[in-house]
Specification:
single chain, alpha+beta, Jelly Rolls, Arc Repressor Mutant, subunit A, 4-stranded antiparallel beta sheet, 7 helices, 10 strands, globular
Amino acid sequence: MKATTASVSPKTPSGFDVTGYLESTAEPHKSVAYRPGTVVFSQGDPADDVLYVQKGTIKISVLSHIGKEAVVAMLEPGDFFGESAMTGRGVRIGTATAVTTSSVLVIGKTTMSRLLHEQPRFADRFISYMLNRNIRVEADLVDQLFNSSEKRLARTLLLLARYGEARPQRTLPKISQKTLAEMIGTTRARVNFFMNKFRTLGLIEYNGEIKVSDSLLSVVLHD
């Protein structure tokens, strides 16, 4: 079984347009398109830049030395990733893969460092994102330690649907039961069992794509 902790990318409240800002200031950057299943970078690759999702969905996974894979984040437009390049790490600590047709903005480490030091609005946007993601990681750890796999699955589906945000998305990005199992640290069979249970209870619609009802929150809150 492939085990993992669940982590879903947070959105920051800032309306700052990273792409528009970089284009208006002529800062060095490039936009790269990826087809579904294409690897953006691999665990162990040199960490030379920070990336920003413009379009699509990016999966971040980590492979342990004994071959267990963990899906640690599902990223969507507005999310940064590869930020470990700014910490002095020489290599990537995970693998980034496009789940859907995606467009990614690539910001070199030198450019990123200058922006953080010289451009307060950009720095505020990045720092706000990182603080929110750190809060989410802590919540994920608590979830993994204390909640059942059924509750972890319900919480993950709600997070993927952006429950509680200004503009939630009831229909989830394309995601397999295998990936959901890797995100919550259980088997695909258990995910299938709970997905069928949620569908029977009317908490989700599940027929090729997943539509989440707000009532799924009752599973997370139930003791």
